Amino acid sequence: MGDLERGAGALQKFQSSINGLLSDLETGPGSSSKVAQHTVERGAFSGGNLPFAEADGFYKQYARVHKELVSLSKLLADQMELLRLGVRATDVGLDNVDEDTRRRFHSIASRVDVAVDAQQERDKQHKPDEQSNTVAKDMG
After folding, report:
1. Of residues 117 and 22, which shows the higher confidence score?
2. How many CB atoms lie within 10 A of CB 80?
3. Residue 107 in contact with residue 82, Cβ under 8 Å?
4. Disordered: where is this region (predicted)?
């Protein structure tokens, strides 16, 4: 068996693994649709929406984290689909990939790029000021 044949077999095995993982993600409790279903209403934190600043703050953080988890789940599924499509393209040869698959690949890649760029921008905005976390050197 030549190296090329072994490589193709390894790619097919890898593709099969990716397909299995993607299927498990989409049908399991980590799918974006199932994560999105698990929500808690604001009233659950203080009953009857009574004024309670701590409950308001907690709910805002809960909603933010929930939104990020749904987004993360979608992003993970997109990245796994990109891997699956990429392995398939490698297996059949780039010239043999149909136009619909190419469009799907580029559409998903664009979504992933937008999500990564947005996260990097958020990280830059929330980066702690390094100078404010240091102690002055002249304080013996």
Report:
1. 117
2. 19
3. no
4. 116-140
Question: What's the rounded Cα separation, in Å, for the pair 46 and 56?
Answer: 9
- pTM to 2 decimals? 0.62
Amino acid identity, position 14: F
Tell which residue, 71, 70, 80, 75, has the closest CA to residue 21: 80
In one letter, which amino acid is 24? D
**Helix ranges, the chain (H):** 3-27, 32-37, 53-92, 99-125
**Domain spans, the chain:** 15-126
Tell which residue, 18, 1, 84, 21, has the closest CA to residue 9: 1
**88, 14 contact by CB (below 8 A):** no
pLDDT in tens, 60-115: 888 888 888 888 888 888 888 888 898 888 888 888 999 999 999 999 999 999 99
Count CB-CB contacts under 10 A for residue 81: 19
User: Cβ(89)–Cβ(106) under 8 Å?
Assistant: no
